[in-house]
Amino acid sequence: MIKSQRINISILLVAILGLMLSSVSGWLLFRAENRAIFNEFKADVDQRATSLHTRVYNNLETLNSLAVLFHADYKYNLSHFTHESRNILQRHPEILGFEWVPIDRINNNSDYAYQIPSTFTTMQSTTDSLEFELASQLITEQTYINTMKSTRPYVSQGLKIWNLETPSSGFLSIVPVYETNHLNERNNYKKAIGCLVGIFYINDIFDSSALSKTPLGINMTLVDTTKDSMQILHTHKSRTGAAVSDSFFYIAVMPNIWDREWSIEASPTSGYIQSRRTMLPIIIVTIGFAFTFLLSLYVSKILHQAVNVKQLVIEQTHQLHTANKKLQALSRTDGLTGISNRRYMDEVLDREWRRAIRNNSHIAFILMDVDKFKAFNDHYGHVAGDECLQHIAKQLDNMIHRSGDLAARYGGEEFVLILTDTENALPVAKSCQKTIQQLAIEHQHSEVASVVTISIGLCVYAPKQGTEPSLIIAAADKALYKAKLAGRNRVEIITIDEKKIVKTASG
After folding, report:
1. Distance in angstroms (rounded) separating the CA atoms of residues 102 and 196
2. CA–CA gap between residue 336 and residue 249 (Å, rounded)
3. Which of 33, 217, 250, 467 sits 20 to 30 Å CA-CA off 165?
4. Residue of 345, 370, 374, 386 lying closest to 456 (CA atoms)
5. For residue 411, which of 360, 363, 352, 343 has the smallest C-alpha distance?
6. In this prediction, what percent of the chain has a pLDDT beyond 90?
């Protein structure tokens, strides 16, 4: 269950990481695409602003070209003015008209701006309505005087022109004319001979500044941002008719136009953005999601395979460990009786012998032999003999209660008990003798008793450094031999004589 949860968590983390990377990649690509679209949008607006500025200046320069006619004797150049102004108006339909205002009219009549201009030249016939517009803008005597004193052309705020069936946006420009080009601040006004006035259609100028007949898809507003005169001059809606997108907004500031500051505020339409938008971010995200899905499946498969392999290894290792334990147990167990065999007895005795040396403790070695067992086998048969040995082994094994003690088959009909940390093992030996006799296994051919009995040789010894376990085995064997000579079915004890011990190493 826990492994399954870990696998699911791992797959979930891979999926989340993949989805995050895909989403971030798509988002970064979308931002890069947006940046490219905005840069293109900005460049289009800047180009239109540059084109509009050039177009406005070209129209304003017509006033300077007309001013040349009055540098000599203006009284004799009015016809030239009329002729040239008509030619210019034919070439520039965005110019409504020109007017020559001599200085004597400005000086003699402060209400000049409210009168019909007698020398106004225009291609349109509705001059009366045009006069109303001029009056409404209050171009007063002071405006002309200030322009002539400054020697700088003047451009008005935006105005409405009513000479058409529908009102149109425009602006008025005044260019001062002097009798000489040598001017200074003191004699500017004295050298002035009059002003040239021009009226221009902003709508037409803006439309003529388009760089292509194909609609861009950008809504633009021309704004006069001159200090203290914020004013919308013209609003241009894209010919595509598409809705405006609020994704981008840009203001292109135009160069100064005769002391007026104009700028274009632009917003793209949804069509402008969509025509430049690609499917690449969506494709990248889709591919990323698909790759994440496939990767998650692959990781899931790999992890499940890894878990299965690991589980198989664990099971096989467990089986091998179990088999090793069984094999080890078989190598330590007597096949007939089921208790420890001689080989394992030697290992235990050697281990406990060394421990007893370290701890200066005693070991008791009890060696037992079934009395007249050959006669038992000959009379009752080997099967009965094997069963007899099994019963005796079981009883001896039941007498072991400590982890360090051991009951083992020594060989043939001989058995051994090893008792650690034991100084008095005689009660245990006596108990073994009594227990086996109480089994009451019939033995008619025994000279000792009518039942199976055992003879026991006992030795208790505290091992010393340099001694070997064979020492106590030999002593117990002598005690057993003594018990047999004494009539069997008895316990004999032998004490090891320290003086006769030959040590293998000094200790």
Report:
1. 9
2. 101
3. 217
4. 370
5. 343
6. 43
- Residues 238 and 220: their CA atoms lie apart, in Å, by 8
434 Cβ contact list (under 8 Å, min separation 6): none
Residue written as token pair 């200090």: 227
pLDDT-derived band at 2 (thresholds 50, 70, 90) equals: low
Highest-confidence segment of 173-182, 240-249, 439-448: 439-448
Residue with tokens 């203001």: 251
Q: Is 57 helix (H, G, I), strand (E, B) or coil?
A: helix
User: Which tokens go with 428?
Assistant: 């245990």
Tokens of 472: 């106590």
**Of 107, 110, 103, 179, which Cα lies nearest the Cα of 138?**
110
The C-alpha atoms of residue 221 and residue 236 are separated, in whole angstroms, by 6
- Comparing 356 with 161, the larger pLDDT belongs to 356
CA angle 307, 312, 316 (to 5 degrees): 150
Amino acid found at 314: I
| Residues 6 or more apart in contact with residue 127 via CB below 8 angstroms | 116, 120, 163
User: Across the strands, what pairs with 251?
Assistant: 265
Task: Say whether 260 sits in a helix, a strand or coil.
Answer: strand
Phi and psi (nearest 5°) for 274?
A: -65, -35
CA separation for the pair 138, 152 (Å, rounded): 20
> Number of C-alpha atoms within 13 angstroms, CB side, residue 95?
26
Six-digit token string for 347: 């290992």
| Residue 444 · residue 335 · CB < 8 Å | no
Half-sphere exposure of 60 (CA within 13 A, CB side): 24
Question: What is the chain's Cα-based Rg?
Answer: 63
- The residue among 168, 169, 137, 167 whose CA lies nearest residue 154 is 137
* In 333-425, alpha helices (H): 342-359, 373-380, 382-398
Stated pTM of the model? 0.58
The dihedral sign for the CA sequence 346, 349, 351, 353 = negative
Contact between 275 and 217 under an 8 Å Cβ cutoff? The reply is yes
How buried is residue 140: exposed, middle or buried, by Cβ count under 10 Å (0-12/13-18/19+)?
middle
Closest CA to 420 of 349, 340, 492, 345: 349
| DSSP 8-state class, residue 238 | -
